[in-house]
Amino acid sequence: MMQPAAAAAPASGAIVAGRVAEKHAEARLFTFFVDGARFALPVARVQTVFRIERVTPAPFAPAAVLGLVNLRGKIVTAVSLRRRLGLDEAGGLAGAYAICVENGGESVGLVVDEVGDVLRLSADQRLPPPPHIAPERAAVTTCVYRLDEGMLPLLDADTLLTLE
Predict the structure, then answer these.
(1) Neighbours of 75 (CB within 10 A)
(2) Domains of the chain, earliest start first
(3) Which helix (H) or strand (E) holds 53?
(4) What does the pLDDT look like over 39-79, one tens digit per residue?
(5) 73 vs 85, 100, 152, CA distance in Å?
(6) Cα 87–116–160 angle (5° rounding)?
(7) Interatomic CA distance for residues 75 and 16, integer angstroms
């Protein structure tokens, strides 16, 4: 059934078809830490979070690929967010966390240092990425959210997983 076209754009905060107008839309973000810095991905992109037990090397893979891991009988490519963000590796992988996301029908585990919380943030807190961030981070940052304790970069999972 077609909805009749609206005569004018809704006022800020107006209810449109049972939802709040886009200006006040809420983002649900899954947070995690890499090298002490907090980052986020949209909750809708996160399939599961798991601990890495063992990694099987993947010869001739791009530098960011650590190897392959077994997630409940499914083979998952493990990608180091440290390497992808241009950071040095820290220690071994035993006990590290991986955030499983889907990319082109394939499951990928983004290896992080720690996992955080799910935050609900308003569109009013959203800002464009700052111009001074490192090129490796700028290329994968969609926006930042202003929080009381600092800025929270929202990473673009599709761009993160474009490996060369």
Answers:
(1) 11
(2) 23-160 (2.40.50.180)
(3) none
(4) 999 999 999 999 998 899 999 999 999 999 999 999 999 99
(5) 29, 14, 34
(6) 45
(7) 43
